[in-house]
Amino acid sequence: SILVYNNLQIKEVLVLYNNHIIEKNTINKALEFIRKNDSGIYRIEQDISQGYNKGFGNGYMTMDIYSSTYNPELHEFLRAAGLPFIPKLGIYNSTTQITDSILGTKYILSDNPNYPYIKLKKIDKCYIYINENAFPMAVAVNKDILEINSYKNYRNPFEYQNEIMKKLFAENKEFFIKSKVDQAELINVKIVENKDDKIAYEKIDKSKKAYLKYNIESKNKEKTTYLYVKNRKMALSEIYIEIDKNNMDKDIFDGAKIL
Prior knowledge:
The protein has 259 residues and is of the alpha+beta class. Helix content is 28%, strand content 23%.
């Protein structure tokens, strides 16, 4: 049985190795296409391969980092803006069109066919998207950005990003608008406390699963809708989403990087 076990382990390693080679070849083809058509300075991000320091390993500029010489202040800012950054480690995930643009992310490589950007090309399983609003290396902004309040004054990354954009361009505009959320149904759950915008729930039958159902009314169905889960423990629980009565058929955090 030990020999069989070891043999299975070797096969698993070979599969992972082969997948890595396939992904690297795909990424290199995509990078070649981008560089052939754009000789500028920009960030490229991708979510089709696993591992750390993907940009460093493939020769392109990215936010992705795993290093003991990281910048603590930068990681703290990015985490406040909603990105999964912690000491030493940062991953391209959970971005918005605002953070992508501010941080100069011009191209995104993804196996997701529904990114909110212009689709340039598909290479193997990889779609190449362009963000036409990506900031260049230098951009003129309003000096009020120097007086922005600490990120600790904001309840979530969307309020913080709204304020950053207002200060950058002296424009009183809400880029993110809160959607209407109604609690539709409690299944095997009861409310035990409701105070100061915080609701505590308790299972009724401890042996059965419990669910909370919400209806979220999007302000504009043509725009992107974001979901923010503040509590890490909650994020790691099962969260499913249904759009216009079509079940997305999986936990929305499958494969997501939650740090």
